[in-house]
Amino acid sequence: MRVCANLPLAGRDLRLDLFRGLANWAIFLDHIPHEVLSSLTTRNYGFSDAADLFVFISGYTAACVFGRIMIERGWVAAASRLVKRVSKLYAAHIIVLAVYIAIVGGLSLGLHDPDDLNQFNVAVFMSHPLRELSQALLLRYRPVNLDVLPLYILLLGTFAPALWLMVRKPTLVLMGSLVVYFAGRHFGWNLATSPSGLWYFNPFTWQLLFFLGAWLALGGARAVHSVVRTRAVFYIAVAFIVFAFLVTMAAHSAGLGNLLPHWILQSFFPNDKTNLAPYRVVHLIAVVVVVTRFLAADSPILQWRLSAPLIKCGQHSLEVFCIGIVLSFCAHAAIETSLDSLWVQIFVGALGILFLTASAHYLTWRKQQDRVLLFANYLRPLLKLEMQRVNHEPKRRFQ
User: Fold this and answer.
1) DSSP character at residue 34
2) How far apart are CA 214 and CA 208, in angstroms?
3) Contact, 215 vs 170, CB < 8 A?
4) 198: which strand partners?
5) Least packed by Cβ within 10 Å: which of 42, 110, 322, 361?
6) CA distance 357 to 34
7) Coil, helix or strand for 192?
8) Does pLDDT of 389 surpass 90?
9) CA nearest to 329, candidates 151, 178, 107, 164
10) Helix (H) or strand (E) holding 194
11) 203-228 mean pLDDT
């Protein structure tokens, strides 16, 4: 089979960084119980939320990066790069898990609040550390709020076998992903966690968003461009976003809930996040249709100073995500200590966002310094040879 993938033009799409940064900010705020600023995140105004966006963009960027490597250098090169990336993600997860457990355990005991140990699923680790450590290495044990990264590790780790076929028959792979999605929902497929329970993000269903993003990157976006750009599709997308907004607001407000028929609210709530309800997928697609219509890749909005913090956080998504996970519990502890003070909620939420942004800027600066140092190390032997040549030239002329 010949390669028929139609990759986007080479170069960084700042829109992906912008929304990945937005997803990281939202995930940080959503992970803090009793955080008033979390009322601003997308989960309060529609069916899908930051996690859906994160997985979708991850699939898109994985297809762009590793698909291009495979087309230019072959499947082995792409697979080896995937293994390297998955190893980095796995190491980051284990480090964050260890730091998170230490902080949750230390602060809970220091503040004499043992309830947090159970609330954040850390008590079982402290009771059986060796058993749960082995389960953590298998991605089967994780404290509360550490569910997204294991899902990403599993999806990216299994992407290499599908990538070979996807650059040749992307639509066929997407159809296979849909089959797995509906089979997973129908038969109740999921993976077990330790000591009991199932994955919060069911990989059999959430893989659909990952492969949907990959399909769009490998030519799907251009294939449906003429249809998506029609007014009919745009109005349908807007109508569904408005509908999702009304239903979500009604579900959280008793007064508004009485305005909608009970059977409508019952159909959409509780929102099935674990098994990725179909209306979450449709909502995310509708948001993508509307956003891409108004935000082009060369939009001046991406050059605004207000967009820079989000873009920087998106460019260092893994590091910012890991820092945000740890900060979220620290913010929770501060809010609990203050007895849910409104001002403390605003302060720790804003301070956390500032810290994430500062961390992203520092990582950018350090990366630039590393490049300068690498370039200097490359030039040093060349300059040394040139100096030796210059120093010996007069001697040869004198002789």
Assistant:
1) T
2) 10
3) yes
4) 192
5) 110
6) 22
7) strand
8) no
9) 107
10) none
11) 93
Residue 84 tokens read as: 């390297």
What mean pLDDT do residues 19-44 have?
95
**Whether pLDDT at 49 is above 80:** yes
Token pair for 61: 């960027």
**Looking at the DSSP assignment, which residues form a beta bridge with residue 192?**
198
Question: Which residue in this structure is represented by tokens 């600066």?
Answer: 365
Angle between helices 75-110 and 148-157 (to 10 degrees): 160
Q: Cα–Cα distance between 200 and 250 in angstroms, integer?
A: 25
Read off the DSSP letter of residue 304. S
Q: Is the pTM of this model over 0.70?
A: yes
* CA angle 386–389–394, rounded 5-degree value: 135
Residue bearing tokens 């294939």: 223
Integer Cα distance of 32 and 175 in angstroms: 37
Strongest mean pLDDT among 65-74, 253-262, 373-382: 65-74
Q: Judge whether 113 and 105 are in contact, CB under 8 Å.
A: no
Rounded Cα–Cα distance for residues 251 and 268 (Å): 9
Best CA proximity match to 338, nearest among 105, 32, 26:
32
The Cα–Cα gap between 27 and 346 comes to: 16
The confidence score (pLDDT) of residue 386 equals 62
Question: Which residue is listed with tokens 């480090």?
Answer: 95
DSSP 216-261: IIIIIHHHSHHHHTSHHHHHHHHHHHHHHHHHHHHHH-HHHHTTS-
Q: What amino acid occupies position 65?
A: V
Task: Report the alpha-carbon distance of residue 199 to residue 211 in Å, rounded.
Answer: 19
Could you tell me the two tokens for 255?
């007064």
- Identity (one letter) of the amino acid at 113? D
Give Cβ neighbours of residue 38 (< 8 Å, ≥ 6 apart).
Answer: 29, 30, 32, 44, 349
The CB density around residue 387, as the number of other CB atoms within 10 Å, is 10
Q: For residues 67 and 53, what is the distance between their CA atoms, to the nearest angstrom?
A: 20
Lowest mean pLDDT among 21-30, 31-40, 247-256: 247-256
The first and second tokens of residue 382, run together, are 């060349």
